[in-house]
Design brief:
This protein is mainly alpha-helical. About 70% of the residues lie in helices and about 0% in strands.
């Protein structure tokens, strides 16, 4: 369905930042524009602020963005962050690893969330039989792989995985501010996925 709403200059500027076509529209954006929602300004600011960090490099932000956009099954944001990652010097192997990490953690989050929710010893005794070889020698390094794993797990709501990856990151020497910013990026990308898709 084609939009009959004319987007504000501010919204159009945001869509340009995301490198979207002039005629791009979503039903969610239409509803926000129609209601003259002030939230659009917040969403734009939250997203743009995600690119400024004292604890994450631009390349790391882009790779986290790839993983989180894949997790959200958001084609537009996936393409945006993959392009951004390439511009920041990420290799095809690093981008592929961000995708792989997101997919693997989605499986782990379902599995370990089930174990945690049910809390039955029998299920803890049965082998998971989920291959995780990629975790052994990550292309992006152990610490960053753990950071992606934590951000995806936080978005997917797996308490057991979040606690495990956060503890690993602290043990690997990651600053709590770095962890916090990765999770904040997850929150912002998840919120944007509800409007831009």
């Amino acid at each position: 369905m084609e939009s009959t709403i004319t987007y504000s200059e501010s919204t159009q500027e945001f869509l340009d930042f995301l490198k979207l076509e002039k005629d791009y529209s979503t039903y969610s954006l239409d509803l926000l524009e129609e209601g003259k929602s002030r939230y659009l300004a917040d969403l734009k600011l939250n997203f743009k602020n995600s690119f400024e960090s004292d604890y994450l490099s631009k390349k790391e932000i882009a790779l986290l963005g790839v993983a989180l956009a894949v997790n959200a099954t958001n084609r537009i944001l996936r393409e945006f962050f993959a392009d951004n990652a390439r511009q920041e010097g990420a290799s095809p192997e690093e981008i592929a690893e961000a995708v792989a990490c997101s997919s693997l953690l989605s499986a782990n989050n379902v599995f370990y969330r089930f174990r945690h929710f049910v809390n039955k010893e029998k299920y803890n005794e049965i082998p998971a039989r989920i291959k995780m070889n990629i975790m052994g020698r990550p292309v992006t390094g152990k610490e960053f792989f753990e950071l992606i794993s934590l951000a995806v797990s936080a978005v997917n709501g797996c308490e057991m995985c979040v606690k495990s990856h956060e503890a690993s990151l602290i043990e690997l020497g990651a600053k709590e501010e770095r962890i916090f910013e990765a999770v904040r990026l997850g929150a912002v990308i998840t919120s944007l996925s509800k409007v831009v898709y």
